[in-house]
Amino acid sequence: MSNDKTVEAFTQYAADYDQWFDSPEGRILFQIEVGAVRLLMKGLEHPFLEVGVGTGRFAYELGIDFGIDPSARALEIAKKRGIKVKNAKGEKLPFEDGCFGSVFLLFTLCFVDDPLMVLSEVRRVLKKGGSLIVGFINKDSAWGKLYAKKGKEGHPIYRHARFYSFNEVKKMIRNSSMEVEACSSTLFQSPSDRPYMEPALKGLIPGAGFVCIRSRKTDNPGGK
Q1: Judging by beta carbons within 10 Å of its beta carbon (0-12, 13-18, 19+), is residue 154 exposed, middle or buried?
Q2: How far is CA 167 from CA 70, 71, 95, in A?
Q3: What is the mean pLDDT of the chain?
Q4: 140-150: average pLDDT
Q5: Which end of the chain is more exposed for a tag (fewer CB within 10 A), N or C?
Q6: Alpha-carbon distance 217 to 131, whole Å?
Q7: pLDDT of residue 3
Q8: CB under 8 Å to 151, separation ≥6 — which residues?
Q9: Is the Cβ–Cβ distance between 41 and 133 less than 8 Å?
C-alpha cells in the first residue's frame, strides 16, 4: 500500500497521530470529516472494511467492522478500539473475492504507491453491487495546498503524501470499473482560522478541503 519509509513514519508517530484527534483542533476537524462520510452511508451493505485503518479512529466512529494497515503499531491501537484488524497492504488484500458489502478508503489514496492496484483489489473483495467510499483532501483547495507545502518542508507524515484533485480520483475510480454515484463536500473554512464546526453538503462544492465520493462495483471488470 505504501513504501517502507511511509510505513515507518506511521509506525513511529502512531501514538502522536492518534493523540492529535483529542486536541481541540483535531476533535473539530474529525467530526467535520466524519459528517461528510456519514452523508454518503445510507443503505450501505455490511460487512464494512477500511483499507488503511490506521489507529481506528474513523472505523470506530463509523461502525466499520474490519480494517487493514501495514503499520503494526497503528493496528495495536485500532485493535484496542474493537476493530478486527490484519497487517496487510491495500495492493494485496488478505480476503476472498466478494466478501465485503462496503469498503472505505479515508485519507489512504494519498499515501499509497499504486492507487489503481489498491482500487482493483477493493473491487475484487466487494460483493456484486457493493460500495466504495473514498475520502480525501482536495489538492485544489487551500487545505490541500497547505498540506502539500508542509510535505515539501519535511513534515514527517505529509512528506510521504501525494494529494489528488476530485477529477483525478474520479478518473481512477472509473478506470477501476466502479461507477461514481454521489459525493459530499466540507471543510470550506480557511486553515489559517481557528477550527469551527461546519456541515457537510451533498455534491462537489468548489473550494472544499475534504471531499468524499461514493461509487458502486459495476459488472464490467474491464473498466470504461
Answers
A1: exposed
A2: 28, 29, 29
A3: 94
A4: 96
A5: C
A6: 6
A7: 65
A8: 158, 159, 160, 161
A9: yes
User: How many Cβ atoms from other residues are within 10 Å of residue 55's Cβ?
Assistant: 27
Give residue 223's identity as a one-letter amino acid code: G
Provide the pLDDT for residue 22: 95
List the grid coordinates of 119.
482500487
Closest CA to 10 of 50, 52, 57, 49: 52
Q: Which amino acid is at 99?
A: C
SS3 labels along the chain = CCCHHHHHHHHHCHHHHHHHCCCHHHHHHHHHHHHHHHCCCCCCCCCEEEECCCCCHHHHHHCCCEEEECCHHHHHHHHHCCCEEEECCCCCCCCCCCCEEEEEEECCHHHCCCHHHHHHHHHHHEEEEEEEEEEEEECCCHHHHHHHHHHHCCCCCHHHCCCECHHHHHHHHHHCCEEEEEEEEECCCCCCCCCCCCCCEECCCCCCCEEEEEEEECCCCCCC
Report whether pLDDT(29) > 90. Answer: yes
- Grid cell, residue 97, equals 473475492
The candidate with the shortest Cα–Cα distance to 124, out of 87, 145, 149, 99, is 99
